[in-house]
């Protein structure tokens, strides 16, 4: 049976305001920590809220073989750490006051669809952290709360001692494929399209750098969040794996009334400092038939995916092909909404939709088979999803793009794009490099 969340009953205390980066050093302590870090203009709702849990109360890790039982495992973990009792009637209305924050890899989504990758990965299929005590930041109103399931007092603010101003160890990311090899893979995907196997596939590759023993991941994340502010920025740390994310893409949101929204992103163009040139770039993107077709196919795919768990007739597309600006690029963004079936919950929604449609292709199952055939490494966390699931059953999540994955031995950055029959391999390669460039610059400049 779906998990029926108890009424949220954390103890919530408002604290004097301080910005999220002021408390991020608390994540240096302990073996795991998580920081959902909304960057960019705080007046916009998607950039408004941040959440920092410096001491998760528990961790759940599942292998690929258990992905067919994902909803049951996740419900049980959420219920095991839920607060007891009833809330005060005077609790502030906040979007997340505790629950589970978790990471599902791309390969976990493949497993849910009955597929197995031919590539090995150092990223766990599924890791969830129980967040019973956390800071809640309203960046727009500059207000701060501490929520605790047991009434534990907040940790003190870290000291403001300045760190030595010297470069970290040198980081040199290397592409796993050269331009010619990757463009040949584009043509292979186009051959599958011409044969009628698929309409589109999202083709990606990775850059890899050895991880020096002296690397300070906290300092690296501070550089990433400063240079690439993003609505779905995140630090997700465990002893075995760390994700540093500057994602711009929401995957799924589910509110307490069961209303679902997903916002697929497909279509990219540069940002210009010249206002007239910038308007011209946006207009060209909005008229680009290839980019529009790519976005439309992924929007239709997401309609299908959420339709698996939505009430009949409730799925709609209230926004199609909107051009939205992010830190370094413009994207075409659409919106798909629906109403969750009454006997389903957020865990069913995740299980029905991973991996995200915007990073697979259409039809999804065949596209994933072809992707695994033509790509030369596992995606791991990249193209997976990072989510928060509250005690009240509400969900928000991002597609893990624009990110750095860190294992004990190496750092990895991924980028890619949607391939259709009219795609130009050289142009697709240039677009992929445009997306990766800010992240690669963060790595290369770290030791400068």
Give the number of domains: 1
Give the CATH topology: Anthranilate synthase
State the CATH architecture: 4-Layer Sandwich
Tell me the number of strands: 22
Q: Can you tell me the CATH class?
A: Alpha Beta
Sheet-strand content, in percent, reads 25-35%
Largest sheet: 12 strands, antiparallel
Overall mean pLDDT stands at 92
Given the C-alpha coordinates, what overall shape results?
globular
Rg estimate, integer Å: 21 Å
Q: Helix proportion of residues, in percent? A: 25-40%
So how many helices? Answer: 10
Which regions contain 5 or more consecutive residues with pLDDT less than 50? Answer: 1-6
- N- to C-terminal distance: 54 Å
**CATH H level, superfamily name:** Anthranilate synthase
- What structural class results from the helix and strand content? alpha+beta
Q: What does it look like?
A:
The chain has 448 residues and is α+β, with helices and mostly antiparallel strands. The protein has a single domain, classed as Anthranilate synthase, CATH 3.60.120. The protein is built from ten helices and 22 strands. The strands form two sheets. Strands 1, 2, 3, 7, 8, 9, 10, 11, 12, 18, 21 and 22 form a twelve-stranded antiparallel sheet that branches. A hairpin with a 3-residue loop joins strand 16 (316-325) and strand 17. The longest helix is centred in the last third of the chain and has 22 residues, at 425-446. The chain is globular, with a radius of gyration of 21 Å. The model is unreliable at 1-6 (pLDDT under 50). Pfam families: Anth_synt_I_N, Chorismate_bind. Residues 148-172 are annotated as: Disordered. Residues 17-145 form the Anthranilate synthase component I N-terminal domain. Residues 180-435 form the Chorismate-utilising enzyme C-terminal domain.
């Amino acid at each position: 049976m779906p998990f029926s969340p108890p009424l949220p009953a954390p103890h919530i205390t408002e604290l004097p305001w301080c910005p999220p980066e002021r408390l991020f050093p608390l994540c240096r302590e302990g073996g795991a920590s998580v920081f959902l870090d909304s960057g960019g203009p705080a007046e916009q709702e998607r950039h408004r809220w941040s959440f920092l849990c410096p001491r998760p109360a528990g961790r759940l890790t599942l292998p690929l073989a258990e992905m067919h039982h994902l909803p049951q495992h996740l419900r049980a973990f959420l219920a095991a750490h839920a607060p007891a009792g009833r809330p005060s009637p005077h609790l502030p209305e906040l979007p997340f006051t505790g629950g589970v924050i978790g990471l599902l890899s791309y390969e976990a989504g493949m497993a849910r669809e009955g597929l197995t990758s031919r590539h090995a990965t150092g990223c766990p299929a599924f890791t969830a952290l129980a967040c019973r005590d956390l800071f809640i930041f309203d960046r727009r109103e500059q207000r701060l709360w501490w929520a605790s399931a047991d009434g534990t007092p907040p940790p003190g603010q870290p000291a403001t001692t300045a760190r030595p101003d010297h470069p970290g160890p040198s980081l040199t990311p290397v592409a796993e494929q050269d331009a010619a090899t990757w463009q040949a893979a584009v043509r292979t995907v186009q051959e599958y399209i011409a044969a009628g196997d698929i309409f589109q596939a999202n083709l990606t590759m990775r850059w890899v750098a050895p991880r020096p023993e002296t690397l300070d991941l906290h300092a690296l994340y501070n550089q990433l969040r400063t240079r690439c502010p993003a609505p779905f920025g995140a630090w997700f740390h465990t002893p075995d794996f760390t994700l540093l994310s500057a994602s711009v893409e929401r995957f799924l949101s589910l509110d307490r009334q069961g209303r679902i929204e997903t916002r697929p992103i497909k279509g990219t163009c540069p940002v210009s400092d010249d206002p007239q040139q910038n308007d011209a770039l946006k207009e060209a993107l909005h008229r680009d038939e290839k980019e529009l077709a790519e976005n439309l196919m992924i929007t239709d795919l997401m309609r299908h995916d959420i339709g698996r768990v939505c009430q009949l007739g409730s799925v709609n597309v209230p926004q199609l092909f909107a051009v939205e600006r992010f830190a370094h690029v413009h994207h075409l963004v659409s919106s798909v909404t629906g109403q969750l079936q009454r006997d389903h919950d957020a865990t069913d929604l995740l299980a029905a939709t991973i991996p995200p449609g915007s990073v697979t292709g259409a039809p999804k199952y065949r596209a994933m088979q072809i992707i695994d055939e033509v790509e030369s490494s596992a995606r791991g966390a990249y193209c997976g999803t990072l989510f928060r699931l509250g005690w009240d059953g509400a969900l928000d999540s991002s597609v893990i793009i624009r990110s750095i994955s860190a294992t004990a031995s190496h750092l990895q950055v991924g980028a890619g794009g949607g391939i259709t029959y009219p795609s130009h391999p050289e142009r697709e390669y240039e677009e992929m490099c445009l997306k990766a460039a800010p992240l690669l610059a963060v790595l290369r400049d770290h030791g400068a």
